[in-house]
Every structure is written in structure tokens, then in C-alpha cells.
Write a structure and sequence with these properties.
Elements: H1 2-16, E1 24-29, H2 39-46, E2 54-58, H3 63-73, H4 77-89, E3 97-99, H5 102-111, E4 115-120, E5 128-134
Parallel strand pairs: 2-3, 2-4
Antiparallel strand pairs: 1-4, 1-5
Length: 135
């Protein structure tokens, strides 16, 4: 019985050592009148189906980008890239600008009232508004 208890304690300690999954939030400029958005709406901008907002992307290959597209669109980053490639090839859209950090995305969104982006929730400050939280 002591071996079983020790095994359970070790397993519990190992699980608690795993990093908590970060929350990703969709943001807009404080100058943007939007206050809330459904995931289905946000996905329209990040998949090039609407140009009402200008999407701002995290760096290709980044963990936050991969998780964002999986949570928001149920597609992996490669599938999203293929969608944008088709839109660009047919002249229907321009792909989102990419930025290498949460701070860079936040600044780009804060400076453009039409921009929409996503960052880690911990990076939010009063320069942007959270309109959607992805979990």
C-alpha cells in the first residue's frame, strides 16, 4: 500500500509541475467601438472571409499562433496558411502581417482602430480591449 501511495504522490507532483495552459485573448484598439465578439465572428477575419477588421498575426511557427488557430478555427496553422495562400493567389485578400511577440502585436493593434489580433492574456494592458477569451 505504501508503494501505491508513493506512486500516486509522484504522479500528482509530476502533473502539478506541468505548465498551466495560457489563455489567449482576441484584442482590438481602445479606439475600436467593438466590445465583444463570438469566436465564429473572429474566425471570419483570421480566415480572410471578412475585411471589416485587419487581422494581425503572431510569428509563424509560434506556439501561441498554433494554439490560437486550433482553438478558434479548429484548423492547424498549415491549414490556415493554405487558406491564405489561395486567397492571395486569387487576389482576394492580403495575408495578416506577422509580429514576433505579444508586445509587438499589442502595439500594432493599439495603433490601428481597424486591427484585430491575439495575445496571451497576461500581456493585456489599457492600450487594448479584450473582446474574446479563448480557453
Amino acid at each position: 500500500m505504501n508503494k501505491l501511495l508513493a506512486s500516486l504522490l509522484v504522479a500528482g507532483a509530476a502533473l502539478s509541475a506541468l505548465p498551466a495552459q495560457a489563455e489567449t485573448v482576441v484584442i482590438v484598439s481602445q479606439k475600436n467601438p467593438a466590445t465583444r465578439m463570438f469566436a465564429e465572428q473572429a474566425s471570419q477575419f483570421f480566415l480572410g472571409k471578412s475585411n471589416m477588421f485587419t487581422p494581425i498575426d503572431q510569428a509563424e511557427g509560434s506556439q501561441i499562433r498554433n494554439e490560437f488557430y486550433q482553438k478558434l478555427t479548429d484548423k492547424d496553422a498549415a491549414q490556415v496558411k493554405a487558406i491564405w495562400s489561395k486567397l492571395v493567389f486569387t487576389g482576394k485578400a492580403t495575408p495578416p502581417k506577422e509580429y514576433k511577440s505579444n508586445a509587438d502585436v499589442k502595439k500594432a493593434v493599439a495603433d490601428d482602430p481597424k486591427a484585430i489580433g491575439y495575445i496571451d492574456k497576461s500581456a493585456v494592458d489599457d492600450t487594448v480591449k479584450v473582446i474574446l477569451t479563448l480557453q
